[in-house]
Every structure is written in C-alpha cells, then in structure tokens.
Write a structure and sequence with these properties.
The protein has 208 residues and is mainly beta. The chain contains two helices and 15 strands. It has helices at 107-122, 125-128; strands at 27-32, 38-43, 47-52, 58-63, 69-75, 80-85, 90-94, 130-134, 137-141, 146-151, 159-162, 168-173, 180-184, 189-192, 199-203. The strands form four sheets. The chain has a four-stranded antiparallel sheet, with no helix packed on it. It has a four-stranded antiparallel sheet with strand order 8-9-10-11, with no helix packed on it. A four-stranded antiparallel sheet has the order 12-13-14-15, with no helix packed on it.
C-alpha cells in the first residue's frame, strides 16, 4: 500500500460503542489517521464521519452529497482529511469546520485519491470482495458479508463467519493481530476475534 493512502481500516483499540449515521446510510470505505487516534468513514450516500478511536465517539460529521465516498487520505498533522467520491469529486474536511473545501491535496496526494477511485471502479468490494494481510495471516471479506481468515500459503480458511448482511467494504487486522475490524455496505462497523470469528463489538450507526 502506498504511503499516506488508506482505503481499508487499520485500528488500534476500537471500543464497542455506536457511531452515528442515518438509518439508510452504509459504509463504502474507511481510513485511519497516521497516529491511529482517529478514523474516517466514507458513506455510500456521501456522509463522512470522523470518529475518535479511543472512545468510538463521532467528533465530526459532514455530507459530501455526491454519492459514495470511496477513499480517505489524512493530510499534514492529521487534522484534515481529503476524500474522493466514486464520481471522481475530491474534497477536504478539517476538524471543527462544518463545510468541505475543494482541492484536497497537491501533487501525489491527489493522485493517490484518484488512483483509489480508479481501483474502486475497476472492482469494488461490492462485487469483488477484498483481501488484507498481516505477516503470514490473511483475511477476506466477501460481497455477501462473510469474513474468512487463514494463515500462510494455505488456501482453505481456518475460520469463516457471517459478519454483515451485505458486502464487507473495509477490513483490517489491528497491528498486533489480536483483532479484526470490518465495515459493511449495510452500515455497521464491527470488531472480531480473528481466531474464532467471535464478535467483540458491533458498532451500529442505527442506534443514534
């Protein structure tokens, strides 16, 4: 993965709480800040949520309003994030500012966002699923909401479970490998034990 661009989520210490979104909202992507303190979700209806990783609290909420947000890129000191819509539109969101700006980042950062859009168009998790790795371990999220986890070159998964009711849009191991985080097109964020598939916390946006 190229420096500075995170399409899927890697999380440290995500707590089991709820995040806010309208009941019709779902997730299309997630990004983690460089210091691991914040995550930003891209909604399938254009909503962008800035969430505090330590508490699960939604700190900021914006509506990009141009269809699915499919990539996020934290900028500078991590207080701003560039986003890319599936239609190719780019925006910049900063903590504490209610309105987005245009031209999120110069040079290679804007290029990274545009590359993410191109990859999403070529084969989104909605139809193609996704795969992430940590060392020799791998995890796959499927378009029907299942997650499988395996190890090494072994093709057959060690464990498979139904995680969501629709496509897994973001998936990542925590850096120590003890947890797996996922988000779905159905509007849920969840924390799992990757060894067993046991749910460790369902973060549903429908509850606020």
């Amino acid at each position: 993965m190229k420096r500075g661009w995170i399409l899927i989520l890697g999380v440290l210490g995500l707590m089991a709480t709820t995040v806010g979104a309208a009941p019709w909202q779902g997730f299309a992507s997630m990004g983690l800040s460089p210091d691991g303190s914040s995550l930003v979700t891209g909604g399938r209806e254009g909503e962008v949520l800035w969430i505090d990783v330590a508490t699960g609290e939604v700190r900021d909420r914006w509506v990009w309003g141009r269809g699915p947000v499919v990539a996020e890129l934290f900028l500078g000191d991590g207080s701003s994030v560039g986003v890319a819509g599936l239609d190719g539109s780019l925006g910049l969101f900063s903590r504490g500012h209610p309105e987005p700006q245009t031209a999120p980042a110069p040079g290679d950062q804007t290029a990274l966002l545009r590359e993410a859009v191109a990859r999403w168009r070529a084969g989104s998790p909605v139809t193609q699923g996704l795969r992430v790795t940590l060392g020799s371990r791998w995890a796959e999220g499927s378009p029907d909401g299942r997650i499988s986890v395996g190890d090494g070159t072994r093709e057959a998964p060690l464990v498979t479970w139904t995680a969501h009711t629709s496509a897994v849009m973001g998936l990542a191991f925590t850096p120590d490998g003890s947890r797996l985080v996922s988000c779905s097109y159905d509007g849920t964020l969840a924390l799992w034990d990757p060894k067993t598939g046991q749910a460790l916390g369902l973060l549903s946006p429908h509850d606020r």
